[in-house]
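Friendly challenge for the regulars: who can give me the structure tokens for this chain first? No prize, just bragging rights.
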Amino acid sequence: IAQTDGIVEVKNEETGQTEWRLVPIKTEESMTFYVLHKFFDDIGFIEWMRAQTGFVFAAAHEHPDPSKYMSKTLQNHLRRNGAKGGEVFHSLRGEAIDDIRETTVQDRSRRLQAGHELSDVHDKYGFRAISAEECQRLANRPLPKGIDWGVFKGLDFDAMAARRRTRGRRPKPTEGG
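First reply, four minutes later:
Bragging rights claimed.
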């Protein structure tokens, strides 16, 4: 499982100093933990994250608004790789919600996993967290079909994290290279 604390360190463009800021939240439920699929563990990403000191996505924090920067970066990746029209970064969340609907995961757990408000007074009783049993269901649900998940195995997360984006257009590939 993972959880954010709602506080980020950002660089103040006027002073050049870094400062801590509260992240605006949409719902109290969005501050509860969420479940990462076991696939992240299978490919070594969880182990790599635990070994990090500081931010997991440190390069994003070199920008004044890290979440906006990452959203725009991922949107550009999607477009470069064929996403069209309404297929946007936020669509991934919608697809995940639809995918979970087709499992035995309860509606309450699905809403908490997505950070959505609990819809009914009965759902609000008890702990505002996903049960251990539901965590197991979320972590072990089948991955969507039609995707070659093998491309994620053997990734060098250190090299990926060290790489910094450059401004401007990407150079066109040269012949033979």
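The chain has a mean pLDDT of 79. Residues 32 and 127 are 10 Å apart (CA to CA). Your move, everyone else.
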